[in-house]
Amino acid sequence: MGPRPRMTLERRYKALSWRGKLSEVAIARKLGVARRTIQCLLKKYEETGSAADKKGRGRKRLTNQREDRMLIRKSLYNRRVTSQQLAEEMQKMTGKQLSTTTVKTRLLEAGLKSCRATRKPLLTAQNRKRRLLWARAHKTWTVQQWRTVMFTYESRFSLVSDKPVHVRRRRGERFNKDCIAPTMKQGGGGLMV
């Protein structure tokens, strides 16, 4: 059985409001908590005058703000670097042994999530220009004109492995050039049918 959720501040003050009127057992029953919880709450209130948790509870962060920024900067510089590689790099630089989980947590806090890179055809500047001109030329076409166009489907048979590439990106960066895995015509080893 895992740890129970902590009592909210509101419920703690409700328990304190009943302390002269009800017994510890009755308060615990009303709030659905253990009697020991109420005992500790009353003792803490008598000692500190507050029902709030003490500052600095829990495990201390292994990294400071400067190291967090360093991790983020390294991840943005090379979006394909893994958490394991970042942890090893940080150990060389700071001497602190970070787990891959810690690295992932810090990057998630900064909004950097590990995602599969979006696969897009590798387009040259000339290709992009031609596509834009074609799109502008056909922007005003009517439905009737589009009905005269025949669309076909293509199937690709890959002759080489297409392993997914993972990148770290923030929300809205899906089509950022650093977050895309470019594909070649015929995949550099495939066949279109």
UniProtKB/TrEMBL annotation:
Record-given protein name: Box and transposase domain containing
SUPFAM superfamilies assigned to the protein according to its UniProt record, in alphabetical order: Homeodomain-like
Organism of provenance: Octopus vulgaris (Common octopus)
One family name in Pfam for this protein: HTH_Tnp_Tc3_2
GO biological process terms, semicolon-separated: DNA integration; DNA transposition
Entry-linked InterPro entries: Homeodomain-like_sf, RNaseH_sf, Transposase_Tc1-like
GO molecular function: DNA binding
Residue span(s) of domain Transposase Tc1-like: 68-139
Domain of life: Eukaryota
